[in-house]
């Protein structure tokens, strides 16, 4: 969700959300920002029943809080406060957010969850499959790459992709790893 494009009435709903439920929404937003976040629809349904707040409103408010968490992670404390005030959040709401002063703990928890998620891969092997053909075969048979992925729980997956697709995959993975490294470095420097 883009906070800049959020309707004013949604910002007002978030600011006026019952005080006794804000901590639970903040915790749910932090959990939803983690890579291993599972479906939380049962928790939201239970929360809705216990608090007599419509599920749709909880989803909307939770979406705003998730965007607030992302904004917090992307900016320093002063910019974070300033940007929230510019968007239209009340000063009282911004002051009561539990993020400022807890940056190191929040970033550490999020990074720990990112690091443990990658430990499931035991091995990755690949081989190039080139089918040789003679002049009698009219169609061109493209080369393919066979990926053999073994996880720590001993499950194996074999994926066959064309060489061109493999290079796109390789490039995308390299780009993601580079961005994760940059994000981790920038969070440790703050």
Automatic annotation (TrEMBL):
Organism in which the protein naturally occurs: Molorchus minor
Pfam families: COMM_domain (PF07258)
Protein name: COMM domain-containing protein 5
Positions of the COMM domain: 120-184
Family the entry assigns: Belongs to the COMM domain-containing protein 5 family.
